[in-house]
Write a structure and sequence with these properties.
This protein is α+β, with helices and mostly antiparallel strands. It has a single domain, classed as Hypothetical protein (Metal Transport, Frataxin, Chain A). Helix content is 40%, strand content 26%. It has three helices and five strands. The chain has a three-stranded antiparallel beta sheet with strand order 2-3-4. A two-stranded antiparallel ribbon has the order 1-5. The chain is globular.
Length: 77
Amino acid sequence: MQLRPVPARRVLRALRKLGFRVVRTRGSHVILKREDGCLTVVPVHAREEIGRGLLGKIAYDVGLSTREFFEVIEKDP
């Protein structure tokens, strides 16, 4: 499975499935937090996708491997 850029809305949907909720928005950045205190930030820019490097960082923030995180994203197209 090759990691490829993904629209921000799909990343946000996957994070909600993992138990995250939007805490606040600052400009174009959405800050999400889980009850256990885990925190991550997703930039939401019009017509731009989130690249492989940032997807890896978000996966690290939420405690998943890049592959596991991408599988969660792919489950809900």
